[in-house]
């Protein structure tokens, strides 16, 4: 069983100490990626719930690779991620939503080795009692726990919030803060921490809901972004409370308003300034490691670099997706940004160039307009429409994004409402042809456009546009595309009640070398009683075209465009159609108030059997007469099946399912048979992709717990040879070793007969006596060759 | 791993236009259509055209009872010979272009001095109209003629007597040609469907070879190698292999009416695959000139003229092509020769002369000269050089810059002023996608609105643009009704708009009528 397609951007990634690895929370595992190649190196598996927090233990020598992870399953684990193995498990019994470990960040004292203080973590947990207790809605708690000697979570609750908030820590480890609606709470971490040590707290107020905050690495500066796109910077926070030891508790009474420009409600800060560039809420804020710059980003997908002193801006535009996290690495020339479309971009730093991308499957866009993803049977690819008018190809076996093609050449602004959409993508069985439909929605009835594009694989196995057809069915929208499995032929259907058969003329070789592709041409047009057509399928030998015209199935001869037969009538319009392998059976699916799954016999032109179930997706094998359906269960049944959907495997001749699997998040899911990856596996595999674009591939026929050895085609990562940090700029420093330096600076000429040569040469070149003495004496001794008994 | 995404900004692009499925012109057909045609009018049907074999390749055109010489450079008549008693049917230059022979329908063959145009010899022996006269290519002393009395004669020009008579044809003999490799061999074609190969050395008037064209033979020509002949008659041009005993090689049947004349021409160009290859040019009564590649056995170029064509000639230097028609117009075409090619030609013709010494001494550049500061900038990189490329800058149009700055109204105005309808539509579609088009329209001031209305008037009925523009026009008129009422200029635009819409409606009505006529026919045909 292969699973993949995890969400890479559920929480912020973390760089390892040498910046060669990037640790990413991927569901209940942590994936370790190589920053040099962008491919997955290993993964830390063990948590049973989604991992929410990740802390790499910093180390100046960059050799150690330990990290702490916290998860919703209530445990904190300590890992050595270079091996990778779990070193320690701490069970908190509370779902953890955020964790910071301040003591790891603060520089250790010299006598650290002997009296190592306990390591304390601050966790943001959900109080399980709060759910039952409806009266107190504040279920988020900020607590402390001792990681070195764990007994139980400290009973001291620093703060209670409505929902578990994420903790932010300053890079120096001195302060930590959370946002709580329109307030910021900042604590000073006590020098010597213990379970009961009370941290000092200040609160900063704002008039809008705060979305994100960041703490300056050196100074007492905090930046916060709000929902309107404003960035507020408080300088010198906690001047009274944190600096003066306990004396002035009531700061409210003493200071005047004039002394503290911009600070509200007499908060404990010296000044507050506001920057406003973002048009919508700020999603990410981060100080650069030297504290001179502030990075900010939001929904519009532009990374803004603010010079902290002057407020001057620099931009990295056209990232194309809302930004979520910005993470600095120990290597000053690398950093990463996480985007909402499940991509992590690695930036080359001073120039802010995207040098590499780690991409997951992009999320579903606008349910109503788009059809579901297309699968490539032979190579195990899934093609999904992306928000920036492209198609992403994702390898299901390798669990990584391969490439993207741009369908519609238009600048994407994530803030805008959706007006242009790639509504349909379809791949041929052999994966060599692709059809896409893009729809431009009209503005108040003016200027809509539907374009059909056919794509061919080019020399380096990527799709390139072969033919572009504007408005193939006048202004009616296209409902489906189907490819003929045997020829270069396709059919496009429209809601306007007609279908067109397209034929690709073979490439004409002209003058030996010049290839001239003549592209796709309309071969025939057909319609049946002007009924809207929603689904079509070619038979396995390509000789019959079945087109669903509203609620009847019409059979056509695609070559001569002749209506051969009309089959049956369903209660609701047919939305999906397919021939079951090479058999004479046709499967149709209806949605709506009377959903139906029916199997039609082509030899008798009559219904064979049918079910009344809501079908989300259906997939057919190429060679056998099996098909699989993904059925949505009614809500009353959800508890019985532990999921909201069920996958049923049928043989067409038999209405009782051969196998069934219950699945979760079936709404918006997809199902596909894939060719078994190593060619010796004759039977095809079944891939299920759920509504969140997580997928699983399994063997549909093996009765035992389907355990497929995970196929890793290229998991061995080329060890990166690149240098980072100082060495990347100035090259390798010679190793500074005081002892070796002393000896190597003196050229000692120890030859075969040292007693003759030792004292030759000028006196200042002579080696020290301590060095010569032993050699001299040694040379005087008679050498005994050991005799072997 | 996915490679780093290139950050791109897409400028708005007009919709693609559909391309022709086949490339419009092959390189060769481009060559043949590079001849610029001009008409030489006011003649009466031109049955024969012949080029002088030596430079400057002037040509002679037979028309009615006179023979006119034209200059190939200016295509202007230089002289006319009119000492004929009947219509001139055929003319031929001797290989050194000093003599010119012409036959007329009285059966008389006259030989002229080509320069002074004085008649030197009168060869009278044919009793019927003589339609063919020809100087052999390698023989300066003899002349071949053939006439409607089915006789072919070989003349000694100096003595004005026929040396030999060849009997064998059973009908009018209208054409012939002499071998380019042997001075004694020639062929003639006759209306009895037969082409005969004669050898002057064989005295007993027996043909050495006989080819059956299966139609009255209108023209016959030797191909340059001398081993093959092409014959024209009926709708077809046929290729025969003489060395292989008169075997039919190919029959080209792309003319619709009788092929009247053929000639051999060379693709006179120094580059390309087909340079210096020979082609057969054929003209027919259907008005088509076809260029036939007898190596690849296909027609490589075809061209139509608005009259039945009778004769074709092509100058040996490949620069002039003349076609005579039955209504008395000569279509003379000259190829535009570039200066470089001309130079090459002149150089190659002077190859034996001593070329002028090249400048061996190279001038040293000094800072006093402007070129000193630009030295080395035009250097081409050599093979091993590492190229440091500057990233290409995307050139954005004005409207793209404005769109990038979200200044939508200004972008619309700027593209309307640029007068490229494709771009205007692209900007409008982009504005629709941004949901800003109607806002832009409502914010236009009166002058700019005039610009928009002028554009709408001009293009809203164009089928490529009408889908968007029709809807937009309606919206504009609804939204800006008050402004339009207030301004006279706008009212004028609206009136124009109304007129073009009315016309479009009329067109649509008539199209529907036609559709109504056709659709029952199609229904019947489909049954």
TrEMBL record, chain A:
WD repeats lie at residues 44-89, 275-316. Residues 248-272 are annotated as: Disordered. Residues 390-632 form the WD repeat-containing protein 75 second beta-propeller domain. Transmembrane segments: none annotated. One of its GO terms (molecular function) is glycosyltransferase activity. InterPro entries: Beta-prop_WDR75_2nd, WD40/YVTN_repeat-like_dom_sf, WD40_repeat_dom_sf, WD40_rpt. Gene3D superfamilies: YVTN repeat-like/Quinoprotein amine dehydrogenase. Keywords: Glycosyltransferase, Nucleus, Repeat, Ribosome biogenesis, rRNA processing, Transferase, WD repeat. It is an enzyme of class 2 (transferase). It is found in: Nucleus, Nucleolus. Its EC number is 2.4.2.-. Its main location: nucleus. This is WD repeat-containing protein 75. The lineage of its organism: Eukaryota, Viridiplantae, Streptophyta, Embryophyta, Tracheophyta.
From TrEMBL, chain B:
Keywords: Nucleus, Repeat, rRNA processing, WD repeat. GO terms for cellular component: nucleolus. It comes from the Eukaryota. The keyword Nucleus applies. PROSITE patterns: WD_REPEATS_1, WD_REPEATS_2, WD_REPEATS_REGION. Residues 379-521 form the U3 small nucleolar RNA-associated protein 15 C-terminal domain. Gene3D superfamilies: YVTN repeat-like/Quinoprotein amine dehydrogenase. It is found in: Nucleus, Nucleolus. InterPro entries: U3_snoRNA-assocProt_15_C, WD40/YVTN_repeat-like_dom_sf, WD40_PAC1, WD40_repeat_CS, WD40_repeat_dom_sf, WD40_rpt. Residues 1-25 are annotated as: Disordered. GO terms for molecular function: mRNA binding. GO terms for biological process: megagametogenesis; positive regulation of transcription by RNA polymerase I; rRNA processing. WD repeats lie at residues 143-165, 166-208. Pfam families: UTP15_C (PF09384), WD40 (PF00400). PANTHER family: U3 SMALL NUCLEOLAR RNA-ASSOCIATED PROTEIN 15 HOMOLOG, UTP15 U3 SMALL NUCLEOLAR RNA-ASSOCIATED PROTEIN 15 FAMILY MEMBER. This is U3 small nucleolar RNA-associated protein 15 isogeny.
